Amino acid sequence: MINLFEVVETNEMITKENLDVRTITLGISLLDCIDSDLARLKDKIHHKIFEAAKNLVQTGEEISREFGIPIVNKRISVTPVALIGGAACHSAEDFASIAQTLDQTAKEVGVNFIGGYSALVSKGMTEADELLIRSIPLALSSTERVCSSVNLGSTRTGINMDAVKLMGEIVKQTAEYTKEEDSLGCAKLVVFCNAPDDNPFMAGAFHGVTEPDKVINVGVSGPGVVKNALSKVRGENFEVLCETIKKTAFKVTRVGQLVAQEASARLGVPFGIVDLSLAPTPAIGDSVADILCEIGLEYAGAPGSTAALALLNDQVKKGGVMASSYVGGLSGAFIPVSEDQGMIDAVSAGALSLEKLEAMTCVCSVGLDMIAIPGDTKETTISGIIADEMAIGMVNQKTTAVRIIPVIGKGVGETVEFGGLLGYAPIMPVNSFSCDAFVNRGGRIPAPIHSFKN
Amino acid sequence: MNKTIITVVGRDTVGIIAKVCTYLAENRINILDISQTIVQGYFNMMMIVDTVGMEKHFGEMAQELHELGNEIGVDIKCQKEEIFDKMHRI
User: In CATH terms, are A27-193 and A218-449 the same topology?
Assistant: First the structure.
């Protein structure tokens, strides 16, 4: 039987170390909503999402109350809208009106984000894909809760450099369209290489076409729990360090598995995956950078950071995999800047540069995340940053992403405040040497040699 | 059997167990196990209870016990057993 010390340990994780379930994300296929009439399409989308998700928030709150574990976000992901709207949308405005329907429905069912305003263009763009991408600035500036993502490359297909070039322009335009709110639109826009179909985390969540009609995916978190566990093994060798991370990740992920199974049973929706991630928030003690410091670095970004992050990421996966029957999504340690107080401190102290962050993304779970850069950064430079990150993903057969925010009207030395879970960030300098001729070549980068595994 | 873990944490004072047990008895909640310790002057108690005979909803019980805790000056939490079981047992 459970003993007092185990109960106290669990509850201290929750109350003192910010253990939480970061999100229950309900994936909903919109493939059966496709219609050539735009009004009818939007009606069907609204109806399908509303009926599927009307009890989501309430169910999440019930589970939270009964187990005493905070479930921070309840969210929805849908089939990439470029696939759904192709037959009905003839302009960027048509597509943006679907985003407004998604936003409205999200508000009605009470979820804080809805993901899937997306296009998958790793090899080429259809007319609908391109229209959707061109509508992103309008869609994100005219909605509150819609998140957008674009998959630009994969290990199997290579990198679509035409789309990389276009996304550099779209990121900048989205920043312009939302400049009154410190270019907040870009915080809801992410580009991927090797995007997973079952990621529950925003802004990149969408419901892949290989998924069932509806599915429950759960994202767990708990950087504070790992940090606290490591504070008890200071000075011990790497074996002890790694074992401690693994055991802690196991415990954290088990909570996610429990919540996923409960949510699945209560909503009558199949359980998809648990995404075993260390996702930080701006709250003190809820930081991945603090774990790196606990491992032995003065600041995140100091020499040794990539190695420390690599072992952290690997041990989190090793511990988590056994704790859940199905693992998926992004799974690993996130290293966003604005959402992590330790990362913000590292940037402010001059310990962490964009280049070091790029190196760290080779071994973290995703990529360059929530990084504020000067508003006058050129579109081609943004495309160059994206291309670098996509290449890391393509060659290493991993998911990489870029969520970068050129803050219009602000420059290096200034700070931008996004609020809530998105936090605040010092604006980081960007290498200003040109990559125009590279980005403007057009076409695509072929798939790497190790993609040919047949 | 419908097991719930009730934890009581706070400054030690007279009658904590009595008051909690009275509430449980009034609501036909059966106590299966009690353990208690004092850590750094703080009263830490855990009860494993069976709520199968209870007529109230879980949320209602949790809320009432929370309010009772406020009256005594301790923090009372109710959680279904599975969260601890999942975390600490393979």
Answer: yes
Query: What's the gap between Cα B83 and its chain centre?
Result: 15
Query: pLDDT (tens digit, 9 = 90+) per residue, A258-274?
Result: 999 999 999 999 999 99
DSSP for A371-414 reads EEEETT--HHHHHHHHHHHHHHHHHHTS-EEEEEEEETT--TT-
Low-confidence ranges of chain B (pLDDT < 70): none
Contacting A with CB below 8 Å, chain B residues are: 5, 7, 33, 35-37, 44, 46, 48, 58-59, 62, 77-88
Q: CB neighbours of B8 closer than 8 A, spacing ≥ 6?
A: B16, B20, B43, B44, B45, B46, B47, B69, B74, B75, B76
Are residues A68 and B78, on separate chains, in Cβ contact within 8 Å?
Answer: yes
Chain A closest-CA separation from residue B71 CA (Å): 21
Give the model confidence (pLDDT) of A55-77 as tens digits: 999 999 999 999 999 999 999 99
Choose the closest CB to B83 out of A4, A62, A67. A67
pLDDT of residue A419: 82
Domain ranges of chain A: 27-193, 218-449
CA distance to partner chain A, nearest, from residue B79 (Å): 5
The list of chain A residues with pLDDT below 70 reads none
How far apart CA A428 and CA A411 sit, in angstroms, is: 8
CATH architecture, domain A27-193: Alpha-Beta Barrel (3.20)
Mutate to test the interface with A, among B3, B5, B86, B90 (most CBs of A within 10 A): B86
CATH fold for domain B3-88: Alpha-Beta Plaits (3.30.70)
For residue A123, the Cα-to-chain-centroid distance in whole angstroms is: 22
The pLDDT, as a whole number, for residue A452 is 87
Spatial contact of A428 and A412, defined as CB atoms under 8 Å apart: yes
**According to CATH, what is the number of the domain A218-449?**
3.20.70.20
Cβ A251–B87 below 8 Å, yes or no? yes
pTM of the predicted model, to two decimals? 0.94
- Residues of chain B positioned with their CB less than 8 A from the CB of A8: 7, 44, 46
Chain A residues closer than 8 Å to B10 by CB: none
